[in-house]
Design brief:
Radius of gyration: 21 Å
Number of strands: 0
Number of helices: 13
Distance between the termini: 64 Å
Shape: elongated
Largest sheet: none
Strand content: under 5%
Order of helices and strands: HHHHHHHHHHHHH
Helix content: over 70%
């Protein structure tokens, strides 16, 4: 049994950072002290999940602190605080929380992916890839996994692996312009200019704001053609 399961069995796992009903979560303000520790921890976690929608990660971290103090064996609370610290650009704090979540629940796939993202921003590409690979082994269906691993593979010089991951990402979500834009960049760097042009065009169609890729592609192609 995962280390956090005894806590979540009674009150459910902590919600994601954007639960969709922040006002309901805020209505629970001040009620936590009247509950048993497990329920109180969940109330703090729900309120922590609502704070970012109000533009306040500082109070969200404070509520996560309270949830962890009441439910110290719940890996989901550490992951939530790690994601909040990542949002605050506190990468060392985020890594410490993801480490704690994984120590409590070694099969927590999402925590590996989150730690990989933080490691990538710390320029630890090898560490990021190791975490992404573990996350993929535990749960390959995570929506952002393949896209994020593709960026790390590209940074490591593995363009073929990056391309494969971007194709997998598009298989899961074929309507995200950034994925097409990144696959276009990888295709261009691999010498597939026709493929790059097609991906940049699709990215521009999906999101008019992403025109930089098209400009880069056509500018680069013009130079190659001597225009």
């Amino acid at each position: 049994m995962p280390a956090n399961e005894d806590e979540t069995a009674a009150c459910g796992k902590a919600p994601e950072l954007h639960p969709g009903k922040p006002d309901e979560a805020f209505a629970a303000r001040g009620c936590a002290l009247g509950f048993d520790p497990g329920r109180a921890a969940q109330v703090y976690a729900r309120r922590a999940a609502a704070w970012p929608d109000k533009g306040d990660t500082r109070h969200a971290v404070g509520d996560c602190d309270a949830a962890i103090s009441l439910g110290p064996k719940n890996a989901a609370y550490y992951r939530m605080r790690g994601k909040l610290r990542h949002m605050q650009a506190d990468l060392d704090g985020a890594l410490a929380d993801f480490d704690a979540a994984i120590a409590l629940d070694p099969a927590f796939a999402a925590a590996y992916v989150d730690r990989g993202a933080a490691r990538f921003l710390k320029t630890d590409v090898a560490g990021a890839l190791a975490d992404y690979d573990m996350g993929a082994r535990l749960d390959p269906r995570q929506p952002s996994l393949h896209h994020m691993r593709a960026l790390a593979r590209r940074a490591a010089g593995d363009l073929a692996g990056a391309y494969d991951d971007l194709c997998a990402a598009l298989h899961v979500d074929g309507e995200t312009a950034d994925i097409y834009n990144d696959r276009g960049r990888v295709s261009m760097e691999s010498g597939d200019f026709a493929g790059a042009g097609a991906d940049y065009e699709r990215a521009a169609i999906l999101k008019v704001g992403i025109c930089a890729g098209l400009i880069r592609f056509f500018g680069f192609s013009s130079v190659r053609a001597g225009w």
